[in-house]
Write a structure and sequence with these properties.
The protein is mostly helical. The protein has helices at about 15-25, 35-45, 50-60, 65-80, 85-95, 100-120, 125-135. Helix content is about 70%, strand content about 0%.
């Protein structure tokens, strides 16, 4: 399949042919190469769950987390109960935590920094070490 094939109208390059090419590329472990094909399939067939799920996987392989999250949400709207969606959500969140999760982690770190700094300023090195080890254990 050439780049010009992607520019053809949907009738000229049907769903089965594009999907067969995606499957061939996936089998060859060329997930990133499937992205333009899957984008086309998603645009032409917005109600077929296979395409946004597969596109999410390909975007993960390409380290494009924000786009993967967007396509995962589209897949979730089609079938929230599909187990692949939960698995992909875990993979995305593990690599690119949501902003609110990062903010929740920052508050305790800031408090720990402040507490350790106070202990250091007082010269309480034993307290400093004990506080630090109490957190990292």
């Amino acid at each position: 399949m050439t780049a010009t094939d992607l520019d053809l109208p949907p009738a000229a390059s049907d769903k089965a042919e594009l999907w067969a090419e995606v499957k061939r590329l996936r089998k060859a472990r060329e997930l990133i190469a499937t992205i333009p094909l899957l984008e086309r399939l998603c645009a032409d067939h917005p109600n077929d769950l296979r395409f946004p799920v597969s596109l999410t996987e390909a975007l993960l392989a390409a380290e494009r987390g924000a786009e993967a999250r967007t396509w995962l949400e589209r897949a979730r709207r089609l079938d929230a109960d599909d187990p692949r969606i939960a698995e992909l959500a875990e993979r995305i969140d593990a690599r690119w935590p949501p902003a609110e999760q990062l903010a929740a982690l920052e508050a305790p770190r800031s408090e720990l920094r402040r507490r350790l700094q106070q202990l250091a300023e007082r010269g309480d090195h034993e307290g400093l070490i004990a506080a630090y080890h109490g957190v990292v254990r």
